[in-house]
């Protein structure tokens, strides 16, 4: 007979597995319950998992924690999607994610993604963080953390290993384009990300750098833009290079300031339903250029595609990262949570950029030439 505690735990797994089905208990008879045929049939689909759990508990060479088996079973459910952006997170992992979107955590400041080749791939090293100063580049593969081999399937574990108390050190083994590996020992810091910076360049051209989109980015962007406009800038350059993305609502608010009335992006779910995200009538009335590169991903690409397709400005630099999938993040009652890809997104003109990125209007390969080219473009448009 199954103990009440175990019945509750494994019943919870089955509820998640069956897409959060609400189980209507029909009758309770002592330690037994009568359920509908539909619920019973769903349970039978996963009876093998429960049977194997019993085998493990009885025969594994050392004592196992039931909580670890539960977490492993649920993680396996998400891994079965073969989607690197969908994942179940333990309490600690979900807490880390929430801290990151708040814009403050202790670590090295490197944004990673599961690569299709099975390696943990760097999207970008955030400006003014230990990883950035150590020379980590987009496209680098992290193959070891503190001497332990890591793969894309263990990305959450690897990220946890890279984080830690400020002033402590972590050693990463990096593989670059030439496939040769090398070690970088980096001292962790308490990172409070300042995601928006601005200045006035030559000929009164405004420059705004956005390093990522966290909960404060849109407000900071508006404040910086207001200050630049008070100085009567004649054109604007927005730098999205190595910006790994972030929160879509922050991207939407920034697009509102740039596009005028139009479509920012639209999504399509598994039923073919389309949902359009639109901007209002606000629009800056000065020439606009966006700097992008292979480290510009997700929300950065949404903003870039919106500016390009609405003809609000031009893109300058190199082809972007290519992430065209939308995730939802949900917290569960016990403090755990999950990310799930729920839709594809398309630029206003209907382009699906996943896996290929966005090619700029003006391609400039050399990093040192990109900003000068943007300044040159703005100058050519001033006064027209």
UniProtKB/TrEMBL annotation:
Any one GO BP annotation for this protein: proteolysis
Highest taxon listed in the record's lineage: Bacteria
UniProt-listed NCBIfam families: prc
Domain PDZ residue range list: 97-163
The UniProt record lists the keyword Protease: yes
Keywords, ordered alphabetically: Hydrolase, Protease, Serine protease
Organism: Tepidibacter thalassicus DSM 15285
Protein name (database record): Carboxyl-terminal processing protease
Keyword Hydrolase tagged: yes
The family this protein is said to belong to: Belongs to the peptidase S41A family.
Single GO molecular function: serine-type peptidase activity
Record-linked Gene3D superfamilies: 2-enoyl-CoA Hydratase, Chain A, domain 1, 2.30.42.10, 3.30.750.44
Pfam family membership, one: CtpB_N-like
GO terms under cellular component: outer membrane-bounded periplasmic space
